[in-house]
Design goal:
Largest sheet: 2 strands, antiparallel
Oligomer: single chain
Shape: globular
Structural class: mainly alpha
Number of helices: 6
Order of helices and strands: EEHHHHHH
Length: about 170
């Protein structure tokens, strides 16, 4: 299926065309094996389509994203240890896409990549200085320091996510 890239997802690091091909992806239900760099659920939403909205069920979807990162991080350590810079950029692109989904979905919103600095600063649940730190990661994706920064952002986001869940449960009781 070919989808026109919605304005909300325009970003030169992730998309090089205004038409994106999504391979036979079932968007009506949660598929934990999706490719995070395609932003398929967010793309469908911003295109006006119907489908599963993972940000509305974060208690199910976000832990899966954290697990995906933990699996990816092991690969990342090897890539950086072996100084495979060509692979480092691709790896960091995937990790950054995953992080965008974590931070927006934690706030029960679809990802907005267009002018993301402004959008991310409006979110209530996010790591400290997230825009500045993520800008560094985006600017120097093949640097080991960016990998360390992204890892720290994931750890902080995970703590905030679970803290928020606990607080929501308390408020419901």
């Amino acid at each position: 299926m070919i989808v026109k890239l919605p304005q909300e997802l325009v970003h030169e690091k992730f998309f090089f065309s205004d038409r994106i091909e999504i391979e036979n992806f079932i968007t009506e239900k949660w598929n934990p094996s999706f490719n995070p760099t395609l932003f398929v659920y967010d793309m469908l939403y911003w295109s006006g389509g119907q489908g599963f909205q993972p940000w509305r069920q974060g208690f199910i979807t976000i832990p899966v994203l954290f697990e995906k990162w933990k699996e990816l991080a092991g690969t990342g350590r090897n890539i950086f240890a072996e100084r495979r810079q060509n692979e480092a950029e691709t790896f960091m692109k995937k990790g950054t896409a995953l992080f965008f989904q974590v931070v927006f979905w934690m706030n029960e919103q679809p990802v907005v990549l267009y002018n993301w600095h402004e959008q991310i600063n409006r979110l209530s649940i996010k790591p400290l200085n997230v825009a500045e730190r993520l800008s560094f990661v985006e600017m120097y994706p093949a640097h080991y320091a960016s990998f360390i920064q992204l890892t720290a952002l994931f750890l902080e986001a995970e703590k905030q996510f679970y803290k928020t869940l606990v607080m929501q449960k308390r408020n419901q009781q």
